[in-house]
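Case study B.
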Amino acid sequence: MPNLPSMQRLLRTLCLGTAMLTVLALATTGRAADWQVSLDTRLLTSDAARSFMDGGLGATRYDRNDSGIQLGRARFALTASLGELWSAHLDASAWDDKDRSPLGVTEAYLQFRPYPRAGYRLRLKAGAFYPPISLENRAAGWESPYTLSYSAINTWLAVEVRTLGLEGQLDWLGTRTGHDFDLGLTAGAFGWNEGAGVVLASDGFMLHDRQTPVFGRVGPPGTGVLPFQQFDGRAGGYAGVEGRYLDRVVLRVLRYDNRADPTSMDSVSGAIAWNTRFNSAGLRVESGTGWTAILQWLDGRTSIAPPGLQLVWPFRAQFALLSKRFGRQTLSARYDRFEVETNVPDGDGSQRGHAFTAAWLFDADAHWRVALEWLRVRSYSYYRTESGDSPRATETQLQLGVRYAFGPR
Amino acid sequence: MRPPTRPRRIRCATPGVGGALALLATLGPAAPLLAATLGITVQTPDGRALSGAVVTARPLDTPARRSAPVHAVMDQVNRAFAPDLLVIPVGSTVAFPNSDSVSHQIYSFSAAKRFQLPLYHGKPYPPVLFDQTGVITLGCNIHDDMLAYLLITDAPYFGRTDARGAWSADVPRGRYQVTVWHPRLRESQTDLERELAVGEADRADLTLHLLKSLQPAPITDRPHSWDY
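Model:
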């Protein structure tokens, strides 16, 4: 794969660049950087089919062979100021899944953050980061403060979608000028995205918390896929709007198109560009009494066009989450629905299903968090028939998570 | 629109020279002999006390005497401003010490004072002078959910209502313009101004009933590490 060395070079450059800038910032200013280290371990039992981490079609991260103690995530995050208006952000993680992915960077970017003026605020980001879609993954490390496993929509974003490029955001801060509302506009341009969509078409939607590192691989060595590739020479883009009512309600709408050329193929690796575009919308409502409700909706399609063919996989997913905070405890329930269709004659790649998630999270103190999560996914997947299995499966996973985090606060 | 509440006069409980001496004894030697108590109570539309509302009172009959400027402190503790509101006389200075270990970048784009203040741990910044009246909204460019207010006033009498929604001050007798302000009020400022006479009695009281419900209070138990 001729792209792999160049990607690895890029990854190394990105990490090295961020690390050097951080060290430089620390050396020149003598200021303490904001850093955090956390270790998240799991005790779990699962009856799920072989996980995608192991090349299977299971809809969860862990399968029936993973019951016992697992490493959820070991994470190191660093934010360093570069002068007054620039900052560098690095989020690196290690996992111990069967995909044998080494230490990876999930986000690494520079941010330009001038002071708001006359009620307007501009933010620019350059590097690798999540586009502003999820209303669920709002905690540090793009984790959900409600459940261990993300919704189907946000799991897909975690696996295949990352902005490797630039993003600008302009906000009108109405709530700081005597109004009840804030409004925001976002636009991004990105590359290294030709693989985005392949996991949807080959595995379908899943529910887990395993984020693919930038330029990382999804699945085991040899058979895994690479979502973050660039070989068609075309940049993708997105544009979105956000409205807020005080600090209670957030509404986000975003249009995403990776603008990949579906006829483009990497001549050596054989990888094909997946043209993926979607609309997403989300609504989050919070009360002053600890209630949170989140609705997210995703509707799009991914397609490839190898010579003589035009293969399309439309996809859509929704979830509703209801959560209540009781002091340091949070109880959450979520219902997910998802579907991947296809125009491939025998239904190759079609999947549909739904999932229930219930979770209890307890933030014992500033360092320790205990979480208990029950997840049940019922799904139909065409691919299961290829191995002679029933296309329908019900998979249940129970996880107890203990996380220890430390850093300056 | 509900008409302004009329000043309510309370019968003097301790008439005569003895009473005046008793009052003098209670208030101490600094209290002017001609003073009476001005009491303001603020209630929400459902009749509950509104605590933390800013009350200012300006004499209408005599030239206004300004309060002496003060040196106030608006700290940053656990990624929040402390206190959430300061009301200070015009000409005062405010220090922003930053008791957090993380940096803050305090800003205001309010007309009464525009400023930007990078606050790094252990690096004190000189206090900021506030020489114009008005409401100043404070934010942090790093932590978007941080929010606090400064109210710079030229009124000689001011303060915030207590848990019972009440504020009082000992003032010379005369007519006063009283204004009420709170960050979450939806009333226009002119709806929150009243004229009140402090006459013969020892007290003049006014209860201000808000007609519009307040904006919901900011959510405070949300972890600061979450995306706002």
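Chain B has one helix and 18 strands. The remaining cases will be described in the next quarterly update.
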